[in-house]
């Protein structure tokens, strides 16, 4: 009888692309992962992977077996959760990845409250400005901000928020921004992970939309909103940042909103999760709890 543990190890190796990466994700040694794969192939009497010095590749049989394993493991997880649901408790591990800023500002207090309701559940939270691969990195939920692009994942909208152009009083004292043309000619600090960090649709006082193309190349590029916020405080230029991130700076005068009569497109907070046949109960429960918590906080 082939064990589910070896099946899950095989799936992890395929998703991660190597024994070493799979071992890191599973918290095992590379030798242990390699042993389980060799034993699995021996039990099945077939080769599932071809190994070269550079990469692993699935055999034809391995490709079909991988698809079956994914469905089997999903069904097994669903069966376990369905049985546990009768006790009204969640258990196991919920793995969540977020950006550092939103994670600390909003998500960590909500995760702590969720954990208090489900004391048998372990939460693993990872902060990164890079978008994680939910499958290969074994995350249950990814919280993404901005405009949602087409994805193989399922997505649930949690909330929307304004983004504001802000700058320090020091910068605005020496650079007068009176109109949209001044904004085009201004020095910006830009988010390096955006495809077009200096091009936006802007809504004017007449509610009409027009395109804003910043003509000055930025001297500062950063991959986190927190870094852009600090650069803006230090007078490096104008940064376009979430209202929830800069609200305190605006209140205490460290930053000022630029041209408040113009509005930039609202952004969304989305919970992404794998597009599997069965959505786990812990994922459903967390997304529902997150939505409700955010709604109550903004009420």
Q: Which structural class do you get from the secondary structure elements?
A: alpha/beta
β-strand number: 14
Tell me the radius of gyration. Answer: 24 Å
Arrangement of strands in the largest sheet? 4-3-5-14-6
Q: State the major sheet.
A: 5 strands, mixed
Mean pLDDT: 88
Q: Report helical residue fraction.
A: 40-55%
**Strand content of the residues, in percent?**
15-25%
Name the poorly predicted regions. Answer: none
Structure write-up:
The chain is an alpha/beta fold and 299 residues long. It contains 10 helices and 14 strands. It has helices at residues 4-16, 19-26, 30-44, 60-85, 100-117, 169-174, 180-184, 225-233, 243-252, 281-298; strands at residues 49-51, 56-58, 92-98, 121-127, 141-146, 154-161, 163-167, 189-191, 199-203, 209-213, 220-222, 239-242, 256-257, 267-273. Strands 4-3-5-14-6 form a 5-stranded mixed β-sheet, covered by helices on one side. The chain has a 3-stranded antiparallel β-sheet with strand order 12-7-13. The chain has a two-stranded antiparallel sheet with strand order 1-2. α1 (4-16) packs across α4 (60-85).
Task: Give a short summary of the structure.
With 299 residues, the protein is α/β, with parallel strands linked by helices. It has helices at 4-16, 19-26, 30-44, 60-85, 100-117, 169-174, 180-184, 225-233, 243-252, 281-298, and strands at residues 49-51, 56-58, 92-98, 121-127, 141-146, 154-161, 163-167, 189-191, 199-203, 209-213, 220-222, 239-242, 256-257, 267-273. Strand 9 and strand 10 form a beta hairpin.
């Amino acid at each position: 009888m082939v064990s589910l543990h070896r099946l899950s190890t095989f799936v992890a190796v395929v998703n991660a692309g190597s024994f070493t990466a799979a071992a890191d994700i599973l918290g095992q040694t590379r030798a242990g992962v390699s042993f389980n794969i060799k034993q699995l192939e021996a039990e099945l009497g077939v080769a599932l992977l071809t190994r070269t010095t550079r990469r692993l590749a699935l055999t034809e049989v391995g490709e079909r077996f991988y698809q079956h394993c994914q469905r089997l493991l999903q069904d097994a997880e669903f069966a376990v959760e369905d049985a546990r649901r009768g006790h009204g408790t969640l258990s196991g591990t919920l793995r969540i990845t977020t950006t550092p800023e939103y994670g600390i500002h909003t998500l960590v207090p909500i995760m702590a409250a969720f954990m208090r309701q489900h004391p048998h559940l372990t939460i693993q939270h990872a902060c990164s400005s890079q978008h994680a691969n939910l499958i290969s990195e074994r995350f249950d939920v990814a919280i993404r901000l901005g405009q949602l692009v087409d994805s193989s994942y399922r997505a649930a909208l949690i909330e929307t928020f304004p983004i504001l152009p802000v700058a320090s009083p020091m910068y605005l004292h020496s650079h007068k921004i009176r109109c949209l043309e001044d904004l085009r000619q201004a020095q910006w600090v830009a988010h390096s992970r955006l495809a077009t960090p200096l091009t936006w649709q802007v809504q004017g006082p007449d509610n009409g939309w027009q395109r804003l193309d910043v003509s000055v190349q930025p001297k500062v590029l950063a991959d986190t909103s927190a870094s852009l916020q600090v650069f803006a405080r230090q007078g490096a230029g104008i940064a376009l940042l979430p209202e929830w991130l800069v609200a305190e700076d605006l209140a205490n005068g460290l930053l000022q909103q630029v041209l408040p009569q113009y509005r930039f497109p609202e952004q969304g907070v989305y919970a992404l999760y794998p597009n599997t046949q069965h959505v786990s109960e812990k994922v459903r429960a967390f997304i529902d709890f997150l939505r409700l918590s955010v709604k109550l906080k903004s009420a």
